[in-house]
Amino acid sequence: MGKRSSRRKNTSIFDSDDDDDTASSSSTAMSDLSILDTEELDTKLQDIKVLDECVDALYEKRGSTREKALSMIVDAFSNKLQYQFVENNCITLLHPCLNSIKKGSSQEISVASRAIGLLALTVGCGDNAAEIFKDSIPPLSQALKSGSESIKISSVLECLAVVTFVGGNDPNVTESSMQIVWQIIYPKSGSNVSAGKTTPTVLAAAISAWSFLFSTVNECNLNSKSWQDSISYFSSLLDKDDRSVRIAAGEAIALIFEIGQVDKLSGEDRVSSDGSVQEGNNSRERYSYILGLKGKILNQVRNLSVEAGGKGSTKKYLSSQRNLFRDIVEFLEDGYCPETSIKIGGDLVNTSTWSQLIQFNFLKRFLGGGFLKHMHDNELLHDIFEFTPQTKQILDNKQKKMFRSPNSVLNKARTQLLNKQRQLSQNMNAGLYAVGVENEEA
């Protein structure tokens, strides 16, 4: 879907100087919906109206206006599940967000990345999620090559991980995104990263994004050479001064040992080497290497599990580090994954693998203050964590027809309202506020 040909230059939520007549006309249009006089319908209609105005504002020439609109979209998608809006406006919202990533400031790119990630999580799996993924990867990859601001790069990495997680169902697709992230973690592996030193904040964000995607990989799809190389590099990062990097690297190592079943795979390679002598030697050497690497990592994580706070400039995350590495020690020595129960409202979400725990923690960080709302209402998260909140309000068939159906009373009322608003705008502002390529070039 291309850029909209004509847009109002200023909408009420972005310009306090709008004519009183316009506000009065909008109020009159709203009064025509009195037949739907329920609080929930009014709230839903108002949410949709505000989001429509935000999408309009994304076509503005002024960057600060676009950034404000993006921030409002992020808040709206964090605090509520905007199913009704995305049902009709998913791609309409996606394209101007992608344009912000291509042309916006670092702050605008950061907020646009969050908006796209939230859009993907709201849409859930399906054709729209696949299109979000397909259209987003090129501009996100390009954004990683330009500039080195930590807030921008970290947000782009998180967005890339989320859209791949939701919309990239092919293992090869996931591996491709992981490779893009890996080039941030280990810049010598490629050129898909801007010049300059990777900051600890970006490095930790990249490792977390990589682990989040790796948690979806099936054991059968693993390339033994790639996981051996990655686990060796993550081991070197356990000696870094920054605590957030050490924690992220530790989680990645535990995940690789869990999914790759390193001891099992290496042992099978060693036993099944019944070919040439050289093949047998290579297998034995690889097995010995993995055992040696595991021993080295065990020594590292033991030390980090009892660290007194010497590494790192502050004690921030020190308790988290100790607890994490104690769990890793127990896992590497005895094979036990940490089992957790997290309270969501009056219900519990349980995790029993490193994969589940890493997915839970990543999405919790990404959603921020909207995490509880999404865990309670977002069906995608319910599927991911096999979680059904007992306190969730279940709509009966009549309510579903009223609120979700494309032919619902709400949808028809929304269409009626928007048609009246557009007609009013056209009558009052015809020819005055066209926004297009010509304006941008002027």
Automatic annotation (TrEMBL):
It comes from Protea cynaroides. This is Interferon-related developmental regulator 1. Residues 1-10 have a biased composition (Basic residues). Belongs to the IFRD family. Residues 25-333 form the Interferon-related developmental regulator N-terminal domain. Residues 1-29 are annotated as: Disordered. It holds the Pfam family IFRD. Gene3D superfamilies: Leucine-rich Repeat Variant. Residues 378-425 form the Interferon-related developmental regulator C-terminal domain. It comes from the Eukaryota. InterPro entries: ARM-like, ARM-type_fold, IFRD, Interferon-rel_develop_reg_C, Interferon-rel_develop_reg_N.
